[in-house]
# Entry
Amino acid sequence: MKSLNSTSMDRRQFLKVTSLAGVGFAIGPVGFANAADQNKHQSLGNFVRISKDNLVTVIIKHLDKGQGVTTGLTAIVAEELDADWQQMRWEFAPADAERYNNLFFGKFQGTGGSTSVANSWMQLRQAGAAARAMLVDAAAKVWGEDAASLRTQAGKVINASGKQLSYGELAELAGTQPIPAEPVLKTPDQFRIIGQHIPRIDSPEKTTGKAIYTIDVRRPGMLHAVVLHAPKFGAVLKTVDDSAAKKVPGVKAVVRIERGIAVLATSHWSALQGRNALIAQWDESQAETRSSSTLWDEYRALLAKPGHVVREDGDADKALANSNNKLSLTFELPFLAHATMEPLNCVVELVDNQCQIWTGSQMPTVDKMVAAQIVGLPPEQLQIHTQLAGGSFGRRASPNADYVAEACMIAKAINGSAPVSLQWSREDDMKAGYYRPMALHQFHAALDAEGKPVAWHQRVVSQSIMRGTPFEGMVRGPIDPTMVEGGSTLPYAIANLKVDAHEHKSGIPTLWWRSVGHSHNAYVTEVFMDEVARLGGQDPLTLRLALLANHPRHAGVLKLAAEKAGWGKALPDNQAMGLAVHESFNSFVAQVALVTMHQDGTYKVNKIVCAVDCGIAITPDVIKAQMEGGIGYGLGAAMGEAITVKEGAVEQNNFYDYLPMRIQHMPDVEVHILASDQAPTGVGEPGLPPAAPAVANALRKFLKGPLTKLPFGTKLDLA
Amino acid sequence: MISFTLNGTQRQYQGDPNQPLLWYVRDELNLTGSKFGCGVAQCGACTMHVNGQPVRACSTPMAAVQNASITTIEGLDSVAGKAIQHAWQRLDVVQCGYCQSGQIMSATALLQNNPSPSDQDIDQAMQGNLCRCATYHRIRQAIHQAADDLAREV
Ligand code: FES
Ligand code: FES
# Structure
């Protein structure tokens, strides 16, 4: 999802504590707009719960969809609390934008823009440090000693003579201690959990089949629902014959909802049989009916015209006109599906004027608002029970809460007579939206006598993600910034630089897809930069470093990756290296790819060496995993994935015609994390953007020209 | 009537013989460790062992399991299975985790058939199991590690 880029954190924070009678205590800072508000929220602010059984539970306000935030956020608390890792537990927070907002997003609970750790960093450190101070105060009381003479270690308070009390033993008394006004935070040299290898907190449940996702939620009397969606975006139901569907054993109801026809049955299998038996007629008069080829024609027509300028340094037009050492290149990148491993789903129970929702949500605030309107209840009467998500990559951050809305419509249509488990099939998931927008990029560059670029012009044609959604307010001017991010922020020192863009409109719904605009802008800028280097007879690394003199963090990761990969060393004729560097979500990543080309044009990506600068590395192994995952997701898309439309309908169905990366194409990955004392930044997305261009730049040696059309496939035409 | 054993328990089934094993196990037995990802034998999230071999339960009708012995992730207790789970935990393979029951079932079957698989053997045996989080790199390492652990124990 988009980086909602307010890096300044609300510093007016107050710590709240709640004694839990007989259990222990809970603590957490709350960001209040002003002190007067504080009184309204006396009971709020639970981020850390320490109980008499000596367990410390961290309340996770973000969705874990695999990015390891349950481990990362728990580690932050454990660090300041001086807890033992074994006593740490976690649970998801409820949907509550007052208590559990993303501090970068305002009064909005959300996971996205790779912000989970960054926005929680100070908040959870303060909570952990305050709780620690209160535990020490409690021990001081018990022993009649001075708190200053006590220390903490691995979940215990220890006095000068070595006497010990566990946090569990102190929990109740600690809850009655005054909250420190300014809890003392550790200095980085005191860290003993942060920066160390700690085991993922969710590994045991996820390796034994015990982890519960939305698809696994069971409620008494629950019915399984599937929906027949319109075959084209924007088509509406005219008539439906459901007589055969209703006769299918197990089918309990067939209901029309705004988004199609829902079949409810006692099992998912029966519901599917019921859906197969529906005969529906659709009104396509308002539907999108264009095909991909038409959309590309329209994109090309726009590309021929000057766009809205989003960045202009110097005078690129003039510098290009005056040069006779130039090159141009055009890139085509397709729509992409998120294709999360767990097809979308949501469970809704509507009973006694309460609406309970079980789902994995990146934006509970939006989901709750939309759901409240549909079921006609005030938001206080809705609860969202956040579930583990089987992937998201942006998909579970839907601005209109689409699949949550659908489940609520169904629950409403049957008057809450049974809990409803809505499960999309893979085909529903593939065809019903949403997609990374397709994009057309054109570049022109002019080089000076030394082969350095003196002019650079990028023109982007793509589709907006935020226009027409509740996030439209973040679009200032005629161009959605998510279309050009990464291109408009090009770090290279080029005297004359221009980026302009056109927004194309279509009925194909678009959404943030892991790394958003960076997913295409990094590819095109980094592949084009290699062509610039090639024309100027320059080494791609040397040229980049020369242009990055004012960007030490870009240069830092680039140098590290190049050094670890052995950039420049002699390679066999059938091997090559390529590199790319990109900043996204305030993290810096460089990658060097090593490829082997075979005589038939098939190739192997042997290895990617990755260097990342994401500030202080809280959980290095989770960071490495995110780099590996981002590389596989991004490279897989570049090699095989595309969504195309024919007369308004998505052509792909399932994993036989939408082709994500499989194990045989996954390279070895070696990750190096730059030492840093900067505040931590995100890692869920930044690993993705450099992967495909690094590989494309490596493959270039064997090809007639650069790879300008994605996906480029697993077999190439050799030079 | 269809009879079989599932995780060591003898069971009978009288419902729709076309219902896939996956939905029977998930919806009727409430064993939810096996996942749905595609429904057409393309992703491996639903992988179970039928008579010791890995099968895609989403595409295995109940009619096909007469007299079979079925193991799901919940019932996985073979030596190879435990070694795989340990290696998975030691290397922290999982991300979202959704594909991992299926990965573990496929990897266990691989080790049971081939105690020291090469990278190519692993690619061959595991390419039916998608992981959108792309944990493949660690899956490969973990299979090698489990194979080494088993070799040491013998
Ligand atoms: S759900 Fe069975 S292979 Fe995908
Ligand atoms: S761990 Fe998420 S799909 Fe494999």
